[in-house]
Amino acid sequence: MHKRRSEDWALESGCYFLKNLYNLSDLSLEEILLILQEAEAFRHGATFEGAAGKIVANLFFEPSTRTHYSFQTAQLRLNCKILDFMPETSSMRKGETFYDTVKTFESFGIDLAIIRHSQNEYYNQLENLNIPFINAGDGTGNHPTQSLLDLMTIRQEFGHFDGLRVAIVGDIRHSRVAHTNIGIMQRLGMEVYTSGPEQLRDANDNYIDFDKAVRTMDVIMLLRVQHERHSERTQMYELSPQEYNRLYGMNHERLEMMKPGAIIMHPAPFNRGVELSDEVVECPQSRIFKQVQNGVFVRMAAIKRALGGF
Ligand code: CP
């Protein structure tokens, strides 16, 4: 658990308007619904002049396509000025630490930092810095803007959250998307189940057989197997891509089994032929690229909030 809430930071720094976004468990449901409302407003063409000219640094210490460049698209739409940090060409190659790197950007006088890092709750190290942060993913912990865009996509589809049934399928143990979504979806009254290989599950999950999930869920949320986060122990139990696809992959046969009106989601990147077959990626039930579209609007809203717009 990190030591500080965004409100605390605002009070300590004497600034009552700037707000961090570390994880969704810090936010009330009212705040979360307000972010979604702002994101919908951006989808319908709203603007926010308060971000124009603000210097935003995108500090991605771990690879990213969707989060990094949808934040950048959001910043361009809001007329921010962008510093795009590349660790591999930075002084980190000379041994500079994560903290010293972020402190250096604070010293430049930036207005906001967007940070992704492989260490869980990396933001605890930054508690003395006086710029707002948006967490773009920490290790296996939190991915708040991904969950917000997932929620936006689900509400566009069903109009509500309460009572919806979702199965999150795959590498639950290593997924910050799963960990963030399970918490917020339960708070919003959704029935959340997990499925996938036993060695990739968390303790105390609400397990459901995958084929039963396919027949009964409103939302099937597939996850990538995160090989880069696996220990030797979990690697010992890994399935071949073909075996994974047979047991836990969405394919033609399982599309036929889905409940009418149910949708397929995936935070991406996805592995074609593993957790889903080629024909599933852009099938009528898939909302994968709708999720990517919504990512820009959610991130515009998160930036507006961080800069004191609401
Ligand atoms: N969904 C997601 O976080 O994708 P990236 O790793 O490409 O940002």
Report on the architecture of this protein.
With 310 residues, the protein is α/β, with parallel strands linked by helices. The chain has 2 domains: 6-142 and 294-306, 3-Layer(aba) Sandwich (Rossmann fold), CATH 3.40.50.1370; 144-287, Aspartate/ornithine carbamoyltransferase (Rossmann fold, 3-Layer(aba) Sandwich), CATH 3.40.50.1370. 39% of the residues lie in helices and 13% in strands. It has 12 helices and 8 strands. Strands 2-1-3-4 form a 4-stranded parallel β-sheet. Strands 6-5-7-8 form a 4-stranded parallel β-sheet, sandwiched between helices. Strand 5, helix 6 and strand 6 (191-195) form a beta-alpha-beta unit. Helix 2 packs across helix 5 (144-158) and helix 5 crosses helix 12. The two termini are 26 Å apart. Mean pLDDT is 93; it is low at 1-6 and 8-16. Bound molecules: phosphoric acid mono(formamide)ester.
